[in-house]
């Protein structure tokens, strides 16, 4: 497929964009209600074991900045004892009483970051170190291995975020519901398995949830789409079954369910995401059914990718209302009918830069705008049924498909936005649409 080579690159680009967004959240998600707090660093002297190695092997209570950190010291040491792999030698820095060394610009206790917890409403935050506590843990890329995170992550009462991308953690996902400030969880690219972690569903304050590249299996509980997240990554697992009907309840701006085993249609409730959804990736599942007209109502979409599924039907004219969309991939499905000029016009009137419709069963393209996009290679229509176009399906294969299409999907002629130069076709028939937009007729072609 023409679009296949770009799938992994698009996922990587989206992951990098979300990482930058996450870093941005660290500095800005500190609202007046004090439900979140951020990581910062300070320049100040910090305690070290002396160069002769005579630093205290077991710190005394007075060596710690406060009782909070004293209580967390044995938690870290107990977890350190369970580490089965540490290729970067990170845990060698987990010694002594300076759990907040990074706060003062030091390099002890790599991966742990401290901050003062939020003060009660109306109170003045403290200026001394008596309330410093570990607010975030970032193990991204460390390659650490441990059989379980339970009893570790959930033992930091003031933790706001936990990042553990690209490690070798497994076991059950800890219950973090007792952490009042927690809002960001990244367990991507680890060895977690089993059903969707039930401990995640009650985390109503989550802004960022990343479970991609694990070995989770089973259905996704509907309450997951009720979480008030900005980003939701579930891709590259073994999730199956229908995407829940309340999909449209999500508050996510970035949502990826790609490379799983989902079946059934794209939920029509997607129209409810119009106020927030920017990028959504459904690619490489087993989705079927008609391409929903409601997609065209999600006006803020910049990326829509449903390639590599079994979706069928014509392209709804409503997609011509996606004025902000930059990438639209529907390659590798069973779509048919006419490729409408109202969609191709987005390359001029909107922000469309890449339109992939290869490996489908379209029989014609709009002559005014779509032909121009084919020539400029913005639009990929290879392996379709368009007469006199190169690299099309065999005529017999196209004839068999049109004689018995996988599903009859209604064509809705209505365009739910004001597009100058386009008026509704006289009848909801492919021939009428082709005539209205100047497109050719259907059939097979080589």
Automatic annotation (TrEMBL):
Residues 42-63 are annotated as: Disordered. The keyword Signal applies. Residues 1-30 form the signal peptide. GO terms for cellular component: extracellular region. InterPro entries: Leu-rich_rpt (IPR001611), LRR_dom_sf (IPR032675), LRR_extensin-like_regulator (IPR051582). The keyword Signal applies. It is found in: Secreted. Keywords: Repeat, Secreted, Signal. Pfam families: LRR_1 (PF00560). PANTHER family: LEUCINE-RICH REPEAT EXTENSIN-LIKE PROTEIN 3-RELATED, LEUCINE-RICH REPEAT-CONTAINING N-TERMINAL PLANT-TYPE DOMAIN-CONTAINING PROTEIN. This is Leucine-rich repeat-containing N-terminal plant-type domain-containing protein. It comes from Oryza glaberrima (African rice).
């Amino acid at each position: 497929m023409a679009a296949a080579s770009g799938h992994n690159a698009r996922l990587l680009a989206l992951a990098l964009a979300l990482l930058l967004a996450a870093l941005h959240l660290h500095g800005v998600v500190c609202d007046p209600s004090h439900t979140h707090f951020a990581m910062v660093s300070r320049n100040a002297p910090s305690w070290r074991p002396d160069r002769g190695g005579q630093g205290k092997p077991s710190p005394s209570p007075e060596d710690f900045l406060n009782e909070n950190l004293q209580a967390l010291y044995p938690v870290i040491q107990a977890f350190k004892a369970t580490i089965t792999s540490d290729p970067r030698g990170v845990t060698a820095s987990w010694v002594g009483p300076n759990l907040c060394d990074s706060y003062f610009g030091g390099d002890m206790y790599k991966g742990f970051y401290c901050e003062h917890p939020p003060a009660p409403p109306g109170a003045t935050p403290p200026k001394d170190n008596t309330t410093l506590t570990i607010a975030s843990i970032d193990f991204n890329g460390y390659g650490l291995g441990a059989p379980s995170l339970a009893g570790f992550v959930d033992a930091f009462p003031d933790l706001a975020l936990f990042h553990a991308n690209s490690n070798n953690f497994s076991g059950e996902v800890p219950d973090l519901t007792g952490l009042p400030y927690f809002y960001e969880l990244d367990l991507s690219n680890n060895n977690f398995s089993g059903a969707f972690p039930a401990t995640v569903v009650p985390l109503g304050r989550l802004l960022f949830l990343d479970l991609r590249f694990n070995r989770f299996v089973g259905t996704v509980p509907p309450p997951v789409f009720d979480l008030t997240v900005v980003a939701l990554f579930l891709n590259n697992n073994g999730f199956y079954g229908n995407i829940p009907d309340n999909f449209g309840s999500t508050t996510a701006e970035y949502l990826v369910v790609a490379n799983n085993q989902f079946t059934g249609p794209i939920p029509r409730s997607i129209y409810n995401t119009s106020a927030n959804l920017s990028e959504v990736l459904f690619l490489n599942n087993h989705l079927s059914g008609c391409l929903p007209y409601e997609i065209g109502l999600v006006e803020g979409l910049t990326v829509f990718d449903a390639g590599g599924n079994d979706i069928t039907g014509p392209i709804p004219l409503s997609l011509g209302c996606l004025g902000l969309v930059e990438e639209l991939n529907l390659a590798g499905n069973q779509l048919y009918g006419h490729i409408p000029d109202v969609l191709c016009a987005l390359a001029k009137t909107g922000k469309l830069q890449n339109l992939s419709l290869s490996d489908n069963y379209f029989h014609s393209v709009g002559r005014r705008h779509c032909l121009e996009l084919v020539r400029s290679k913005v639009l990929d229509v290879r392996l379709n049924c368009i007469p006199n176009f190169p690299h099309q399906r065999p005529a017999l294969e196209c004839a068999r498909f049109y004689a018995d299409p996988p599903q009859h999907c209604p064509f809705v002629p209505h365009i739910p936005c004001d597009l100058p130069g386009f008026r509704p076709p006289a009848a909801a028939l492919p021939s009428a649409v082709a005539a209205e937009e100047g497109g050719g007729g259907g059939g097979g072609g080589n």
